[in-house]
TrEMBL record:
<keyword id="KW-0732">Signal</keyword>
<keyword id="KW-0449">Lipoprotein</keyword>
<dbReference type="GO" id="GO:0043235">
    <property type="term" value="C:receptor complex"/>
</dbReference>
<protein>
    <submittedName>
        <fullName>GDNF family receptor alpha 4a</fullName>
    </submittedName>
</protein>
<dbReference type="InterPro" id="IPR003438">
    <property type="entry name" value="GDNF_rcpt"/>
</dbReference>
<keyword id="KW-0675">Receptor</keyword>
<keyword id="KW-0336">GPI-anchor</keyword>
<feature type="domain" description="GDNF/GAS1">
    <location>
        <begin position="37"/>
        <end position="116"/>
    </location>
</feature>
<feature type="domain" description="GDNF/GAS1">
    <location>
        <begin position="148"/>
        <end position="228"/>
    </location>
</feature>
<dbReference type="InterPro" id="IPR016017">
    <property type="entry name" value="GDNF/GAS1"/>
</dbReference>
<keyword id="KW-1003">Cell membrane</keyword>
<comment type="similarity">
    <text>Belongs to the GDNFR family.</text>
</comment>
<dbReference type="GO" id="GO:0007169">
    <property type="term" value="P:cell surface receptor protein tyrosine kinase signaling pathway"/>
</dbReference>
<dbReference type="InterPro" id="IPR037193">
    <property type="entry name" value="GDNF_alpha"/>
</dbReference>
<keyword id="KW-0472">Membrane</keyword>
<dbReference type="Pfam" id="PF02351">
    <property type="entry name" value="GDNF"/>
</dbReference>
<dbReference type="GO" id="GO:0009897">
    <property type="term" value="C:external side of plasma membrane"/>
</dbReference>
Amino acid sequence: MIIYTAVSRESITTLTCPLPCLTGIPRMALSVGGRDCLRAGDTCSSDDTCSPRLRTLRQCVAGDGSVKLGPGARNQCENAMTALLSTPLHGCQCKRGMKKEKNCLSIYWSLHQSVLHGKIRISPKPFCRSLMSSFFLSESEVTTVNRCLDAAKACNIDETCQKLRTEYVSSCIQPSARSGPCNRAKCNKALRKFFDRVPPEYTNELLFCPCTDTACAERRRQTIVPSCSYEDKEKPNCLAQLRICKADYVCRSRWAQFQHDCQPSEQSASGCKQENYGQCLLAYTGLIGSTITPNYLDNSTSNVGPWCSCAASGNHREQCSDFLTFFHDNICLSNDKVIQTVAAGVSHTHTHTHTHTHTHTHTHTHTGIYLGLLYFF
């Protein structure tokens, strides 16, 4: 994990993304074009030439394009996609956690996934990028302060962080008549809301703070309330979970972004192709609350991975192992790098005056107890 020098929010240049990359974070630039897919889709739909081509391409990616389009369907699909590459749809992206995220991503994947000649074409960057990952701290700051305790304090002081953290803990520990100990769907939804709306200088500090003892590591592991959001009686097959993920626009997009931002590379001096560990951590948190939610595997190491196994993978065991390796042995998520990264860092969080006031709300007793345990562990 890496380390960053604080930069004030005011000093961050407003870039070309028409929407902020994350709710609550200053507007950032898109690396390509800066076009929002929702707006690009509206523009296309109102154009007599673009609109029918988009409809054609959507039929192509639905899986039965040849049936709907009849003879010559493959050529129609290819021609439609080629034509759309010269429209505002090309290069458009979405904002993670935006109000109509799934609608936006459905437009994105219409252009970037097409079944042509038996191959699926995928662009790995569905989300606009955040520059909130360019902050560094000194090595001494990492080792001389209790970063995990400071992370909990900082979140409790910030109104948004405290409110959304309390919400997800409450959702994740509340028993459900239908689901048993908890309602996993409700828990995951609240987790996604927390990691999408709270700036990474808070969320990354909570998730990736460095620990030197097992008690601290266990508190860190419990951050996402794994008994509800992560663990189960048995571990499902990883490829089965990945298939479920890819069938959902949001999960598929976050997995694609994670693969892009956390891609290892032997040609890179750092071992990471993008050489941006903060962006990798942001992509990692985007997976939390999905069917392939990652977490710490135990409280004695910094190894992370989803709750699944490669048992019953049959002839696809190698493919399954590659999936797990992307988490377990990924240098971009290695302990010596990520512990230092913690995007936005303590320096940024604690050297700026908070404009929010901490509000005490009446919450479920068990929620307070759980948060208390995380705070004092």
